[in-house]
Write a structure and sequence with these properties.
- By secondary structure, this protein is mainly beta.
- The chain has two domains: 209 residues, Sulfite Oxidase, Chain A, domain 2; 115 residues, Immunoglobulin-like (Sandwich).
- Helices cover 8% and strands 36% of the residues.
- It contains five helices and 22 strands.
- A hairpin with a 2-residue loop joins strand 7 and strand 8.
- The radius of gyration is 21 Å and the shape is globular.
């Protein structure tokens, strides 16, 4: 464990160079341009030959399926705008810090995913009555936690059968690029990014809980290395603002002219519609309510605006969201061993002159 954000390791720098976050100014786009969407790749981007690639659907089913990409594209399709956030978003702001991908707050993006619903494929395969989970296995392979593994995760059968769960082959109207899971990936609206398995090669229905490393060991909220913890699932509410004014190159502190200043941003949650966003200009001591806009879909972030009268001096801007289920962002993060689900309010330092 590290003790601050000032001692980023060489290993973390390598991860940060491979992966990338959303520039906060790109929050102005309701649908994130493809090259600006956040990206996390656990192992390597696999080389895939579309002509020989096949998706295997098997396990506890009556009729195992083998599907090529064109067969999948011939099935009924759906396009859904989905906000996708990494479960480790905010990890670098927790102290002591878990050594891993050092996200600040920008590991997020909203894209329009096109694909075919998963449920009809499972129904065509004939899920056995004793089935409890569905396992999704990717082509990406590596070592994590001293375990050689393919990246794979499972969903409870009831969640896998939800109407909005897609096998996606396009993003923002384009074929999936290699880094986003070409030729096929899972999209599970509302859940953190670890669930959306990329480079799918198989879907396996099982009659007992899946115990793979990414499911059983990783992505748990735990107090220590020995604590089994509880699984990470749906995204907690979060609001981010576009930092106003202009930035200092190194610190990213902001400089704003005195007078009326419109603040804007986006808010989302995997537990329900965002129903409230509040903004503070004094570090969270007092709050005003923002005006909410429309969301691109029920599974995508919601825009907001707030009119701030910027007075000369030093300010700390904050924003916080609340969803329809009553979940609200905390002012400070709740610590956990692996640094997951830190949805504490964003803080932006501003000098007004």
């Amino acid at each position: 464990m590290s003790t601050s954000t000032s001692d980023i390791t060489l290993e973390e720098l390598r991860l940060a160079a491979r992966n990338h976050a959303l520039p906060l100014e790109a929050l102005r786009h309701p649908i994130t341009p493809l090259g600006l969407h956040y990206l996390l790749i656990h192992f390597d981007i696999p080389a895939v030959d579309e002509q020989s690639w096949r998706l295997e659907v098997g396990g506890r089913v009556a009729r195992p399926l083998t599907l090529g990409l064109e067969e999948i594209k011939e099935r009924p399709s759906r396009t859904v705008a989905v906000t996708l956030e990494c479960a480790g978003n905010g990890r670098a702001l927790i102290s002591p810090r878990a050594v891993s991908q050092p996200w600040l707050t920008e590991a997020v993006g909203t894209a329009e995913w096109t694909g075919t619903p998963l449920a009809p494929i499972l129904e065509a395969a004939g899920v056995a009555p004793e089935a409890v989970e569905v396992v999704f296995t990717g082509l990406d392979r590596g070592v994590q936690g001293d375990v050689e593994q393919a990246y794979e995760r499972s969903l409870p059968l009831a969640d896998a059968l939800r109407d909005e769960v897609l096998l996606a082959y396009e993003i923002n109207g384009q074929p999936l690029p290699p880094q986003h899971g070409y030729p096929l990936r899972l999209v599970v609206p509302g859940w953190y990014g670890m669930t959306h398995v990329k480079w799918l090669r198989s879907i396996t229905v099982v009659d007992e809980p899946f115990r793979g490393w990414q499911q059983e060991v990783s992505y748990h909220l735990r107090d220590s290395e020995e604590d089994p913890g509880r699984p990470v699932t749906r995204m907690l509410p979060r609001s981010l603002m576009i930092p106003p004014g202009i930035p200092d190159f190194l610190s990213r502190a902001r400089f704003v002219d005195a007078g009326p200043c419109e603040l804007e941003g986006r808010a989302w949650s995997g537990w329900g519609t965002i129903e409230r966003v509040e903004v503070s200009a004094d570090g969270g001591r007092s709050w005003g309510e923002a005006i909410l806009g429309e969301a691109p879909s029920e599974f995508a972030w919601r825009g907001w605006t707030y009119e701030w009268e910027a007075e000369p001096g030093e300010h700390e801007l904050c924003c916080r969201a609340e969803d329809a289920a009553g979940n609200a962002q905390p002012l400070s993060p709740d610590w956990n061993f692996d640094g997951f689900c830190n949805n504490a309010v964003q803080r932006v330092r501003v000098t007004v002159s």
